[in-house]
Structure formats: C-alpha cells, structure tokens
Design a protein that fits this description.
single chain, 874 residues, eight-stranded mixed beta sheet, eight-stranded parallel beta sheet, 47% helix
Length: 874
C-alpha cells in the first residue's frame, strides 16, 4: 500500500498530531465536533521530511493535492483558478509541537489579475478584492520570493501619505489597484521575475516555502530554546479562505478560553473589524478587546462563547483559538492548547482541578516546572514607585518587573547579554527574527501590537516581562532613539518596565521578590503529597535561609562557609591567618574568626529551626582571599603592616596553575588542621546555643569537601570528632551530629565503598564532578560548549543539566558501592543541578534522599520531583 501523504479534514482527529501536526489534527477534530471550520486538507509531516531530504515531492503528491482540491471545490462551490467563482486558499505550517510565528504562512493564494476581477464581481466589493490581492502579493513576495517586507510597507506608507489617510482601511479601491501595481514592480525590480499568475504554481511554491521554513533560523532557534527534538518536520495545512476584510460585518481575531497571562477564568482576546488575521498578530493596527464584540456582533459573539466553552471542555485545557467572521458568519480557523505564563499555568491547573476537569496528578503534570521561575519574578518596590517618573503606559503583555539599558536591535541585545549587561529590547514591533534578542533581553517594550502580538506571545512563553502597544512612545529604529513626549532616550539609557501593569518608568527602580500564596501554595502542597525526593536549599546566610524556608525548603544541603569570610573585618582576620608564618600566629587569627563563624551558624540554625543543616568546611584555595590588583596589594600591605615584598612573595607562593585541582578543600585542612578545628568548634558551639534558644535539638551535618581518597576522609573525621569531644566536655552538653562528604572527584565515586565505611552521608557536588569527569573547565568551556550542544556532542550544557550518560554513571557507581557498604547512607546533591528539572528527575530515578538548590529554585525542584514520582508510577 502506498504511503498516504494527504488527509482531508474529515479523515483526521486530535490524536494524529505526529502526522498532521497540531494545527491539522485540531482542524480535523473541530470538524468532528461540528464546529464551523472552512474545508481543508493537510500534507503530512512525513512529506516535509521527504522534501527536505530529496528536494522534491513524492511521486503521487501532486495528484493527491489536486484530488483534495476538488473536494474543497465541491464543498464550497468555488473553483481554484476559476475566472467566475474563484477558490482562494490559505497555506499554513503546523508541527506536532506548537511553534507560533516561527514558520511561514501565505493567505489569499489563488489571486491573479483575472481572479481578482471575478472576486470583485462575485462579492460586489471591489475594494475588498483588491485589498486581498495586495495582501497576497505582499505576503507571497516576502515569503516565496524573498523580497524585503519593509519595501512593501514603505510603498503602503507612501500611498497612505499621498492620499492623506491614516489606516489602510481608509484606502479606496482605486488606491489599492495602484498599490497592487507598485507591489508588482517592486517584485520585478528585486527579483528580476514577474509575479506568478498561475494559481497552481503559486500553491506549489508556497508548499515548498513552508517545508523549507522548518529549517529557517528562527524555527531552529525556537526548537533549540524550547528543547523540541525528534520531530520529522512541519505539516502543511491548505484551507479555503474566509475573509474578515469584507467590510463592517466582517472581522478576525485571536482568543483564549482563559487569560494566558494571569490564568483568570475569563474569556480573553482581541479582534479587528474589516481585517485579516495577520493584522491582529503583526501589531500594525491595535486591536479591540474581545468583550466589545458582544455589542458590535452579539449573535456571533454568543456563538463564539459557546464554541470556546465546548472546545475547552473537550480538550480539558485552556484553548488558543483563531476565528474569522465573514459577512456575519463565524468560522473557527484553529484551536490549540494555549501558551501561558508560569503564573497562568498554575492558576489554570488549580482552577481546573477544582472544577473537576482534571485530577491532581494531571494538574501537577500540566505545569512545566521550569515555568515556575516566571512566577517567582520580581515586582516593583512600592516605595520606589511612589517617587518614580511614569514615562508611558501600554498593555500588560507579560508579567514581571525589570530594568535595563535600552537597545533597539535583537543582535545587539544578544551581544550585550554575552557581556553581562541587562537590556530592555525596544522595538516598533517585534518579528520572529528577533527571537534570539528577545531571549537575551531582560524585558521587551513595543510601540505597536496587542496582547496577542508576536512580542506578547513570545515574551509570555519565555517568562520575560513585556509592555506592548504603548502608543505614547515613538521608536526610531534606524536612529536608535526612543521619544516619549518631550523626552528622548538613546541606546544605553536605563528604563524600567512593569509587564504586570503595562507601565514604563524612567531609570532604574528597585524590585522586590515574590512570595508563595494562593494557587501557588496549593500546587506546592500537592507536590509535597506526591514527591518522594526531599528538597533542601543552598544557603550561606540567615537571610537566604529564611527565603528558602518561605519557598518550602526542608533543610540546607549546602552552607558554604567561605562566603562568610569576605565580609567586613572577617577578611582581615582570614588574611592575617594566611600571612602568618607560625601555628601560633594562625591560631591567633582563627580565634578572631571563631565568634564570627559561630554567630553566623546560630543565625542559620535559628532560621531553619529543626530542619537539617549541612555545613561544608572551607573549600576554596587560600589565594582567593588575597588581592590581585597592584593598588589593592599596596593597601593591604599598609593595613596588615607587612612589607610589600613579603606580601607579593606570599601571593606568588600561593599561586597555582590550576587552582581548581590544587591546594583546596580537605587538602587545606590536612595541611592546616587548625582551620577544620576552628570551623568544627563554631558549628558545634552554635548548635548548643541555638538548641537552648529554640528549645529543640539541632543536629548539624558537617561535610568534608573534595575527598578523593578514603584516607583523607578518615584523617578529617578524626580531627572533627576530637574537636567535638572537646566542645562537649567544655560545655557539658551532648550534641548529635553527622559527618559526611561531597562526592565531586571521579576517584571518590569509583571508591565510594571505602569512603562509605566512615561517612554517614554523601552529597554529590555535581559542578566539580562534571568539571573533572568531563575534563571541562567551568570558567573556560563556555567559549565552545554552545557549539558542542548545537552539534549534538552534548544534548545540553552539562553544567546546566546533568550529563546522565557520563557524570550520571559516576553517580550510579558511587550510590551502588556506597549503599552496598552502608545501607543507611543518606544521599543528596548540592550542585546547581539540584534545581534543574531534568536533573531532579534523574536524581529521583537514582533514588537520592534529597536535592539541594538555590532558594528561588526550591519550588521548581519540588514540582519536578512530584512529576518524576507520578511519571514513574504511570
């Protein structure tokens, strides 16, 4: 049996996304539900794959297309290329996973110098016919023939100026005829070719362009950013055109069954009267709120409401829909599960759970755990807002508040991000080509466009704050200038945007962190119900610890003691210790540090209450505490009353060619056991003080870093235990404690059975384990890792997501050997991987006791852990 390349819209259903793409499958499903859908057929994703590999169509495809065209002709009683009753088509992409705006679309296909006359005669509306024709030439010229979009826009602007009109809807039929002629001349001048008059040739070229758009830059970038893999290509949907530009009884719009920005259960969307679909999303005219359609077209509005409710109940998810009203008749062109912000995702999932549409496990699985990061976006400090200068207002297109330097170009935004600068991308309107820069920017501000414009949809998907359609601003892209009222801003000037309220402020405003409440709290409670993996935090201060507890952290998995040494007088005491030539001198300096460390630990214990706290002993090499710049060295020489020559000698002596593999971690404490003794004493004395203050038992967990040999751990453990005995004897207080180690050297993983004989817990330090296991420098590999990922050498950056095939194997070996020797061994992870969803799921699979991550990633880790447990169960 020959492979089927084309499906008519009565032959498919929603389960066929892999073959028909999301758009094609849902068009077919809507037809099955008796929703008014213009007749259509879909060319499969396999056909796209064939075309890309062979640069030609399968042998039977042309015939299959013509057969299905006949079916549309029969249903619509129109004829493709007919000079009396012409059939016009839309040609749209549609992959199995939604990629809004990333691939190409052609509308009004089939128009030429003859069919435009027939359309004019049939409709009795010459203006509409030529408006459709000029749109088709512009879109076809841009998409199929490679003519710059801006040349057509320039011609349109010129003809509006010549006729003293503001909007394209004000142009007469004669104006549009002239515009058609100018467009054709532009195409001839730019390509050396005439605009094609053969409708089937138009169709053939457009199908090929959609196939090719699967591999255009923006589509590839989008798939990379969203980790979309394993798809064959895009389907091509060919559908009878319906027209929203036939006058005041026609219109077009985009709508959502719930608010995609906040999740509120309220019909949401925009539309334009006398327009086609691209007008709404392109931001050329600012659309009207969907609620006003009820007054203008009550019958069509009520039918639309009935349909959206039906579709949401059927798909059991929030729907993103496109519709057109042609002379009073409503047609649905598309439905899909809508893109939404993290905040909306949580709200919708919790509401639908309460409404009985989905169950608890479905609610948890509905939310992309990474998107919770958006929910933790900062908002403006109310005190800062009081005295702030409001520059302009626009639409609150994507929530969150950020400040940054103005840039007007997407590539510049990317370059500035690479340099470590925060930028706001300011554009007249964004286009799919801007995706790289939008991803790099902190936030986006546009002069034109509505809540469903490209800028709004993409920003929401990325979790970037966005203010769109701000008519109070004027953007001069070429001059790199932003004018608001009588103020002018250039590239590099700071502004602040509040995407939740749609407000633009002058300068940099302070922002505040979010808190857990409402639906978010319900989701966290649900996640706690289903997850098996514990979630701790990496915190070095009481402030960080309190934030983490507010987000639901169950303990501290990593407290880096060295971070405490850089504050105030402490750094002086640390430097005094480093510069001392004798044990006596070092001890004197350590005695100054002891009360400071003890005070820090008391504060952390108090913040964590009875939750476990794992404290890592000093890890970095000593040279990190000494200055590098000449001026700083001279100043330190004076402060410490040490000769400049001697200080430079010491700095040179501590210098290492590869400090990450040098004299650090447990190696320091073996050379200078007095450091480990001081830190242990501070940890235990603080536990005694905090226990008395809180009236509850504190059980500190002391973690030895950088163990590669079990003998290293034995030596350290002996020092720690001896110090604890001394403190207990002095204070006459019993203290329970645990001593364990980080597994961050490959040799430690391979000899974990020997280490487990003496350790009570392992915590995988996956930052260093990745560095040493892969032979990659964290500090230098960024120069080439992106290329490695793009070439598929690594699936993702191994410093962001655990390399499961390599580093993951080392972890598995360590776990198996460790548990074999010590079945009660506690197992955790404390690298930044502990808050990355795929890494969390991998840790669940390995059977770890807990993951530990930065405070603001705790909710992400909790949700990812719950999802891992549910998926394993399923």
């Amino acid at each position: 049996m020959n492979e089927k390349y084309v499906y008519y819209f009565t032959e498919g259903n929603k389960s066929m996304k892999e073959i028909l793409g999301g758009k094609g499958a849902n068009i077919a499903e809507m037809k099955n539900l008796d929703v008014p859908v213009p007749p259509a057929f879909t060319i499969t994703t396999q056909t796209c794959d064939f075309y890309i590999k062979n640069n030609s169509w399968p042998e039977t495809l042309e015939n299959d297309i013509k057969e299905n065209l006949k079916k549309i002709e029969q249903e619509t009683q129109t004829f493709f290329g007919g000079e009396e009753n012409p059939l016009l088509l839309s040609v749209r992409s549609g992959a199995a996973v939604s990629m809004p705006g990333m691939m190409d679309t052609v509308l009004n296909l089939g128009l030429n110098d003859k069919t435009v006359l027939a359309l004019s005669k049939k409709s009795g509306n010459e203006r509409f016919a030529y408006d459709s024709y000029r749109r088709f030439i512009q879109m076809f010229g841009d998409v199929d023939m490679g003519v710059k979009h801006s040349l057509f826009e320039e011609a349109l602007d010129n003809i509006k100026k010549e006729n003293n009109v503001k909007f394209d809807t004000d142009l007469s039929a004669e104006n549009l005829k002239e515009l058609v002629n100018r467009y054709k001349k532009i195409i001839l001048k730019e390509t050396g070719k005439e605009f094609p008059q053969d409708p089937f040739k138009q169709l053939e070229l457009s199908i090929n362009v959609v196939f090719k758009s699967w591999n255009n830059k923006r589509a590839i970038e989008y798939r990379k950013l969203n980790k979309i893999e394993g798809l064959l290509g895009t389907a091509v949907n060919i559908q009878a055109m319906v027209f929203g530009n036939m006058g005041q009884t026609s219109g077009t719009g985009v709508c959502f069954s719930r608010n995609p920005s906040t999740g509120e259960n309220k019909f949401y969307g925009e539309y334009l009267i006398n327009a086609q679909g691209e007008d709404v999303v392109a931001g050329i005219r600012t659309p009207e709120d969907i609620s006003t359609l009820e007054q203008k077209m009550p019958e069509q509005y009520n039918e639309l409401v009935k349909i959206y409710k039906n579709l949401e109940n059927h798909y059991r998810d929030m729907q993103d829909m496109e519709f057109t009203i042609q002379e009073g008749k409503l047609y649905m062109l598309q439905t899909r599960n809508g893109k939404r912000t993290g905040k909306a995702a949580v709200q919708i999932a919790m509401d639908m759970l309460e409404e009985g549409l989905i169950n608890e496990k479905e609610a948890i699985l509905r939310i992309d755990s990474k998107s919770l990061d958006q929910l933790l976006h900062k908002s403006l400090d109310p005190n800062a807002v009081k005295n702030a200068t409001v520059l302009a207002r626009g639409l609150p297109a994507s929530p969150g508040a950020v400040f940054g330097k103005i840039v007007f170009d997407a590539d510049k935004a990317f370059d500035e991000k690479e340099k470590g600068n925060k930028v706001i991308l300011v554009r007249t309107e964004t286009s799919p080509e801007d995706i790289k820069g939008m991803n790099a920017a902190e936030g986006i501000l546009t002069q034109r466009g509505g809540m469903t414009s490209h800028a709004a949809v993409v920003a929401r998907g990325m979790g970037k704050p966005c203010v769109s359609g701000s008519s109070e601003i004027v953007v001069y892209d070429k001059q790199e200038k932003l004018v608001i009222g009588d103020k002018s801003f250039k590239e590099g000037d700071f502004i602040t945007i509040d995407g939740s309220l749609g407000v633009v402020y002058e300068g940099k405003l302070d922002v505040v962190n979010p808190s857990l409440e409402g639906s978010f709290a319900k989701l966290m409670s649900l996640s706690d119900k289903y997850r098996k993996l514990g979630v701790r935090t990496n915190a070095d201060t009481p402030k960080d610890a309190k934030v983490a507890v507010s987000f639901g952290a169950e303990g501290i998995g990593l407290c880096r003691t060295e971070h405490m040494f850089f504050e105030g007088d402490r750094i002086k005491a640390v430097r005094e210790m480093i510069l001392s030539e004798s044990l006596e001198g070092r001890q004197k300096a350590l005695d100054k540090l002891l009360p400071m460390q003890r005070e820090d630990f008391v504060g952390i214990y108090e913040a964590m209450g009875n939750r476990p706290v794992t404290i890592r002993l000093l890890d970095p090499p000593l040279h990190e505490f000494l200055p590098k710049e000449e001026n700083d060295i001279v100043e330190l020489s004076k402060d410490m009353d040490v000769s400049l020559e001697k200080l430079k000698e010491k700095i040179e002596d501590l210098h290492e060619f590869n400090p990450m593999l040098g004299h650090r971690g447990c190696r320091l404490a073996i050379t200078y056991p007095e450091i480990a003794k001081m830190q242990t004493r501070a940890i235990i004395e603080a536990a005694i003080i905090a226990s008395e203050k809180l009236g509850q038992e504190i059980v500190p967990e002391i973690m030895v870093p950088l163990i590669g040999n079990s003998k290293e751990f034995e030596i350290q453990k002996e020092i720690i235990e001896q110090t604890i005995k001394e403190v207990i004897s002095e204070k006459e207080k019993e203290v329970k404690y645990k001593i364990g180690t980080m597994i961050e050297i490959p040799r430690a993983a391979l000899t974990a059975d020997k280490i487990a004989e003496h350790a009570e817990f392992f915590s995988f330090g996956t930052n260093d384990l990745t560095q040493m296991g892969l032979g990659l420098s964290r500090d230098d590999s960024g120069k080439f890792l992106k290329q490695y990922v793009s070439l598929g050498i690594y699936k993702t950056d191994p410093f962001q997501s655990i390399d499961q095939d390599g580093v993951g194997q080392l972890m598995q070996i360590a776990i198996a050997k460790g548990l074999n020797k010590n079945p009660n061994l506690k197992l955790g992870i404390c690298g930044e991987h502990g808050g990355e969803p795929e890494s969390v799921k991998f840790c669940h699979k390995l059977g770890l006791t807990y993951v530990s991550c930065s405070p603001f990633r705790v909710p992400i880790a909790k949700l990812a852990a719950a999802q891992a447990a549910i998926l394993e169960e399923n």
